[in-house]
Amino acid sequence: MTHPPSVLVSLKDVSKSYDDKTVLAALDLDIYDGEFVTLLGPSGCGKTTILRLIAGFERPNHGQIILAGEEITQQAAHLRHVNTVFQSYALFPHMSVFDNVAFGLRMEKVAEPEVKERAIQALEMVQLANLAHRRPHQLSGGQQQRVAIARAAVKRPRLLLLDEPLSALDYKLRKQMQNELKRLQRQLGITFIFVTHDQEEALSMSDRVIVMREGHIEQIGTPRQVYENPKTLFVARFVGETNLFDAVIQTKNNHHWTLTLAQQNVCIKARTHLAHLAEGQKVKVLLRPEDMRLYAPADRQALADQPCLSGKVIERNYKGMTLDTVIALEQGGQILVSEFFDEEDPDFDYRLGESVLVSWVANWEVILVDEQVSPSVAVSAVEEV
Ligand SMILES: Nc1ncnc2c1ncn2[C@@H]1O[C@H](COP(=O)(O)OP(=O)(O)OP(=O)(O)O)[C@@H](O)[C@H]1O
Ligand SMILES: [Mg+2]
Fold first, then answer.
1. Which of 28, 63, 177, 298 is least enclosed, having the fewest CB within 10 Å?
2. What residues does the ABC transporter domain cover (predicted)?
3. How far is CA 251 from CA 247, 256, 308, 370, in A?
């Protein structure tokens, strides 16, 4: 990102409805020049609508859109310095892959040797230079999508809008394309607004993530802020796996709080940003699976000061990088624990049904004010405790 960051795109108090149904409500959003931002949120929350408004394929019912200091709210799409890669790609069927990519440059009357060089470069980026002579119908869906990306990037727009451009690709190619896109964005200094359903993709690629819910912005932050300090339960549950506990704040002082959680007293560092919460207040405590630790019952003595919950192993799933264990707690409820392999003892395993103790890394608890979570929210986590 350039410093100090200048704003490239602003949405000011933007609302959009279709047939009386509000899809975006009074949205304010600034996107900085050179930034990679990702819109993340459940299906129907308005991600594509935001891109269509910025690209000029839709007009807001209210509010303003500003691009590079110029109001463009009513400006025709083809006059905006914005390129788009949409969920459904539309390539010209009668043209070769090369001509599809070169098309925009030729329209701009770029000299032919430069057209050739830039089109080939763009095709190399998406690893399709060897298929440049083919027609779109001779490519797979994923390959066609990569041509669409090359075609949009080759024009080096100020702003590139990408609507789930990688969703048709297999895992490995998707990872490669994530790296290539990120590299391209840095090299060319193009601002990217990227839409994905995939939270891992959002976290790994973005400078900032915008988590959306039903037409409004729930939280904007760096991937780390959104993951480690979700502002709401919705964000916590949408971005990553969660273990959620009901808890009550028992005592507060400037340094420490005590909570009761799963019938235990837990002492945590004071949370200054939540200073307004009173003693006796009910809260939710979020613990990420990778912050949980498993111990054998014989270790209880050694864990004297730490909160620890008893339970039995009911699932053990090999995930390649990690081992995920689901524990049924004695007091009811389940939690998920995600551990890296113990390289010293790779054959070690818990048996199903085995009794274990579960604790967690102190002070990694995220405290959230209780709120209603709508049932339509996709919850990727295990049961609440
Ligand atoms: N042309 C339209 N007419 C009527 N309703 C529309 C139109 N376009 C979008 N909508 C509605 O607006 C809401 C937001 O749609 P949008 O396409 O922005 O969602 P999205 O976040 O991109 O979802 P997905 O992840 O499924 O692509 C949805 O409820 C959708 O049905
Ligand atoms: Mg969409």
1. 298
2. 9-239
3. 12, 8, 20, 18
The ligand whose atoms approach the alpha carbon of 39 most closely is: 1
How many angstroms from the chain centroid is the CA of residue 188? 23
Cα(196) to centroid(ligand 1), Å: 14
State the total domains in the chain: 2
49 CA from centroid of ligand 1 (Å): 6
Question: Over its length of 385 residues, how does the chain's per-residue pLDDT go in tens digits?
Answer: 545 679 999 999 999 999 989 999 999 999 999 999 999 999 999 999 999 999 999 999 999 999 999 999 999 998 898 888 876 667 999 999 999 999 999 999 999 999 999 999 999 988 899 999 999 999 987 788 889 989 988 988 889 999 998 887 888 888 888 888 888 888 878 899 999 988 889 999 999 999 999 999 999 999 999 999 999 989 998 998 899 999 999 999 888 999 998 888 888 998 888 888 899 999 999 999 999 999 999 888 888 778 889 999 999 988 877 889 999 999 888 999 998 876 666 667 788 999 999 999 888 899 998 764 443 333 333 434 4
The first and second tokens of residue 155, run together, are: 């024009």
Provide the 8-state DSSP code for 330: T
Mutate to test the pocket of ligand 1, among 45, 196, 377 (most ligand atoms within 8 A of CB): 45
- Closest listed residue to residue 358, CA positions, set 314, 322, 318: 314
Q: Specify whether 65 is located in the same domain as 139.
A: yes
195, 293: one domain:
no
- The finding on whether 49 has its CB within 6 A of some atom of ligand 1 is yes
Expressed as residue numbers, the domain containing 312 is 241-342+350-369
Distance 23 CA to ligand 1 centre (A): 7
Helices 171-188/141-153 angle, 10° precision: 0
Q: Which atom of ligand 1 is nearest the CA belonging to 45?
A: 21
**Are both 58 and 196 inside the same structural domain?**
yes
Has residue 259 been placed in a domain? Answer: yes
DSSP category for residue 232: S
Neighbours of ion ligand 2 (CB under 5 A): 48
Q: Are residues 138 and 190 in the same domain?
A: yes
Phi-psi region of 189 (alpha: psi -120 to 50; beta: other; left: phi over 0): left
Tell whether 249 and 327 lie within a shared domain: yes
- Residue 12 CA to ligand 2 centre (angstroms): 21
CB of 57 shorter than 6 A to ligand 1: no
Is 12 in the same domain as 91?
yes
* Residue 25: Cβ within 10 Å count: 15
Does residue 378 lie within any of the structural domains?
no
